[in-house]
Amino acid sequence: MDLHRRPPPPTTPNGAVATTNHHSRRLKSPSPSPKASDALPLPLYLTNTIFFTLFFSVAYYLLHRWRDKIRSSTPLHVVTLSEIAAIVSLIASFIYLLGFFGIDFVQSFISRANHDGWDLDDTITTNQTTNFSVASPVAGSDQSLPKLTAPKPSFCSEEDNEIVNSVVEGEIPSYSLESRLGDCFRAAAIRREALQRTSGRSLDGLPLEGFDYETILGQCCEMPVGYIQIPVGVAGPLLLDGFEYTVPMATTEGCLVASTNRGCKAIYASGGAESVVLRDAMSRAPVVRFSTAKRASQLKFFLEDPLNADTLAVVFNRSSRFARLQGIQCAMAGKNLYMRFTCSTGDAMGMNMVSKGVQNVLDFLQNDFPDMDVIGISGNYCSDKKPAAVNWIEGRGKSVVCEAIIKEEVVKKVLKTSVSALVELNMLKNLAGSAIAGTLGGFNAHASNIVSAIFIATGQDPAQNVESSHCITMMEAVNDGRDLHISVTMPSIEVGTVGGGTQLASQSACLNMLGVKGASKDSPGSNSRLLATIVAGSVLAGELSLMSAIAAGQLVNSHMKYNRSCKDVTKLSSRG
Ligand code: ADP
After folding, report:
1. What's the CA gap between 483 and 477, in Å, rounded?
2. Which residue's CA is the nearest one to ligand 1's atom 19?
3. SS3 of 279, please?
């Protein structure tokens, strides 16, 4: 069987798969197309029998009467009442039969034409669909969950059907479909169909079409069967460092965008926010083991010796033209040594880049420390995607501080509260309350809400929300107590504008909206740093709005009132 028979699906300019291809059209709708006859109030077999019987009996009667008239030389146009009734019945039944079979006849032509043009709705009515069967639910599966109630016709080609069967029976590994078929969309469609059959559960609702599966191959997601849709809202304009940004936020949390938008409005009305990138350094910390703690400490001193810095940097920086080693921080646990390498990574978030650099250095160190046993390229002292004090204290990715002075009248009119109430709430909630809770970098109201929404919209790694949301929100009355000084300090915002999910069509569009799409030509790293400041500025807006809602006692009310139907953005808050 020729598995490479179809070229990749055509894509639209924005990267979406065009829906004119064979499979995408066919998979569009699972329900058979309706027919005109479906509108009849009685079962078909009954109405058909009645009208057939009527037609033939009155036709027989009229022919009989016609013969009698010819024999008795009676003029044909002289008709009795019963003959009139018979003629009317004949015409009526003829119209019915013509309508019924005539329309079906025409429909069959339309169906065939559409089938040739790969229109799903009609191909489903063809007998090929009857080939499909649904496997019984897997053993132990929850019987209460919705099941596939009918076979889901998906493919017209016997070849695809055979491949689905092979995947179901385990003859073809599901993960190998892309490489075998050379067509990512077809692979996803076949995998999806196989999954539905083996699980006995429908994937209706999880879209398959409208996504370019080629773009995620080998980079973003393996074994795709569809994609999740998340709405993207915009907050703004966010006036930050003299520029206006419209911030995309992908979320399903009602009121979050509206609340952030209100914060942006307050910042804008007060003249904008300012931000500073304090540090730009991604980290990776391998763990190595020696036979003695003394020997491990020798490597520590070697790495910390300024005389070795240049050599180590040269070795490390070979990994990429954008990787620049900044430092190595060591920590010991007995005879185990943890080396936290930090480096700038241009516009990439940088995990791959820093890992490659670390590997180069480890290979180099083996020359002088052949007894070094590399236990793992990551020893969790990095620390990636886990709450860790090292990130909170040292920073990871971009460390950013962002501030604004919100005018007294704006606090009153836009935020509907007072400066003193905000300052007091911030002290008792974000500082004291978080301290009592034993927080790690959580001295804020809801930074992670904004961070996560922007991360998802712009193709960042959402798991890095853990440390990227570390934030301390400070509030102070200034200008003789009239205005509010607010700041957010975020030591570990991990963002990039190249690599990972940033190159996908939707995420790329959101980056483009912010003017930070891709690699910066003039100054590598400036796009990702700008994105980090926008994240911090948006967090500032989110903190302002939610804290104001809580200070004004609006949180519960506005949540109850607007969370399911956010209409009045001026009264909104979010959870935190
Ligand atoms: P990450 O290190 O965040 O996982 P990737 O390794 O996936 O990111 O992507 C970074 C890739 O992009 C590298 O191959 C790098 O050479 C390339 N690249 C191109 N331009 C830039 C830039 N301005 N900054 C950083 N990387 C860039």
Report:
1. 6
2. 519
3. strand
Q: Which of 253, 408, 424, 476 is catalytic?
A: 253
Contact 262, 450 (CB under 8 A): no
Closest ligand 1 atom number to CA of residue 353: 2
The residues that bridge with 469 in the sheet, in sequence order, are none
State the distance from the centre of ligand 1 to the C-alpha of 517, rounded, in angstroms. 13
- Token pair 């001295």 is found at 443
Q: How far apart are CA 358 and CA 303, in angstroms?
A: 13
Burial of 268-306, coded b for 16+ CB within 10 Å and e otherwise, reads: bbbebbbbebebbbbbbbbbbbbeeeeebeebbebbeee
In the chain, the amino acid numbered 55 is: F
Under a CB-based contact definition with an 8 Å cutoff, are residues 213 and 509 in contact?
no
Q: Which two tokens stand for residue 185?
A: 């969309």
What residues line ligand 1, using a CB cutoff of 6 Å?
320, 322, 345-353, 496, 498-500, 519-520, 524
Q: Which residues contact 230 (CB under 8 A, 6 or more apart)?
A: 250, 251, 252, 456
Q: How far, CA to CA in Å, does 259 sit from each of 231, 301, 542?
A: 16, 51, 6
For residues 240 and 447, give the distance between their C-alpha atoms in angstroms, rounded to a whole number: 17
Q: Tell me if 184 sits within 8 A of 214, measured CB to CB.
A: yes
Query: What are the tokens at 183?
Result: 């067509």
Reading the chain (576 residues) residue by residue, the pLDDT tens digits are 444 433 333 333 333 333 333 333 333 333 333 444 444 556 666 778 888 888 888 888 888 888 888 888 888 888 888 888 888 888 888 888 887 777 656 655 554 444 333 333 332 233 333 333 333 333 333 434 444 444 444 566 899 999 999 999 999 999 999 999 999 999 999 999 999 999 999 999 999 999 999 999 999 999 999 999 999 999 999 999 999 999 999 999 999 999 999 999 999 999 999 999 999 999 999 999 999 999 999 999 999 999 999 999 999 999 999 999 999 999 999 999 999 999 999 999 999 999 999 999 999 999 999 999 999 999 999 999 999 999 999 999 999 999 999 999 999 999 999 999 999 999 999 999 999 999 999 999 999 999 999 999 999 999 999 999 999 999 999 999 999 999 999 999 999 999 999 999 999 999 999 999 999 999 999 999 999 999 999 999 999 999 999 999 976 666 666 555 545 444 444 456
The one-letter amino acid at 233: G
Q: Whose CA is nearest to atom 8 of ligand 1?
A: 499
Bridge-partner residues for 233, per DSSP? 249
Query: What is the C-alpha radius of gyration for the chain, rounded to an integer number of angstroms?
Result: 35
Distance of CA 497 from the midpoint of ligand 1 (Å): 9
pTM of the model: 0.74
Backbone angles phi, psi at 112, to 5 degrees: -65, -40
CB 445 within 8 A of CB 473: yes
Answer yes or no: are the C-beta atoms of 375 and 287 closer than 8 Å. yes
Query: From CA 257, how far away is CA 230, in angstroms rounded?
Result: 13
Give whole-number Cα distances, 113 to 77, 88, 100, in Å: 46, 37, 20
